[in-house]
TrEMBL record:
Keywords: Chaperone, Cytoplasm, Nickel insertion. It comes from Streptomyces fimbriatus. Belongs to the UreD family. This is Urease accessory protein UreD. Required for maturation of urease via the functional incorporation of the urease nickel metallocenter. It is found in: Cytoplasm. Its main location: cytoplasm. UreD, UreF and UreG form a complex that acts as a GTP-hydrolysis-dependent molecular chaperone, activating the urease apoprotein by helping to assemble the nickel containing metallocenter of UreC. The UreE protein probably delivers the nickel. InterPro entries: UreD (IPR002669). The gene is ureD.
């Protein structure tokens, strides 16, 4: 493990054969103008869980330049990786461009979960863009781009968040999964949030997407989605 910039990597107690690492932020980041990157690799036959202990808060900085935060996950054959960061909070007047790129070997498995909160209490959000790109055996599985706040068109309209301020994604890719199940509507209540779980074409993969008023509601929806996947 190599530490640099605001990241301190801490190896925690292994559990049930899984190596576990916590990514601790040692300073306020990302601020405007910051360029951050995190590279995580699970070698062949490894089981690796990576988490963060606290939420990440995107804040305005001394410059108006956007901050960037790039996460790159690489999973070798017969390895399993879980990436479970705490939520990302887009504070007022901040600008953050975040990417997550996942490169999987054909027999690799990954569980990825991300949640975003647009604005702290009683404040508007900053400008946040996220992109999730997944490859398996060199073939594209998913390329999803979202943009919220700022100049993003219609981000709080009915076609995107519909007035909600929290969103989340859950991705599971596992060669043991079957994808002959139809899409599942998990939540469709304006008070409790909306979520859908859908298989991804031509790959053993499922993606759940959720929006709600609070992060707690988004978390419950994604928990339900994960239970559906585990029971398939």
């Amino acid at each position: 493990m190599r530490n640099s910039g605001p990241f301190h990597l801490h190896q925690t107690q292994p559990h049930n054969g899984w190596a576990r690492v916590s990514v601790i932020s040692s300073m306020c980041a990302p601020l405007g103008g910051d360029r951050l990157a995190l590279d995580i690799t699970a070698q062949g036959h490894a089981r690796l869980e990576v988490t963060t202990p606290t939420a990440t808060i995107a804040l305005p900085g001394a410059t108006t330049a956007p901050a960037t935060y790039d996460v790159r996950l690489t999973v070798a054959d017969h390895a399993m990786l879980t990436w479970l960061p705490k939520p990302l909070i887009s504070a007022s007047d901040s600008t953050l461009h975040q990417t997550c790129t996942v490169d999987l070997a054909p027999t690799a498995a990954v569980l990825l979960r991300e949640e975003q909160l647009l604005g702290r209490t009683a404040e508007p959000p900053g400008h946040l863009t996220t992109r999730l790109t997944v490859y398996r055996g060199g073939r594209p599985v998913l390329d999803q781009h979202t943009a919220y706040g700022g100049t993003a068109p219609a981000w709080d309209g009915p076609a995107v968040l519909g007035g909600h301020r929290a969103a989340g994604q859950l991705l599971v890719v596992d060669p043991h999964l079957t994808t002959d199940h139809p899409s599942i509507l998990i939540g469709d209540d304006p008070e409790k949030g909306h979520a859908v779980l859908t298989p991804l074409a031509q790959h053993p993969a499922y993606l759940a997407t959720a929006t709600a008023t609070t992060l707690h509601q988004v978390g419950k929806l994604l928990d339900t989605a994960l239970e559906h996947i585990r029971n398939m």
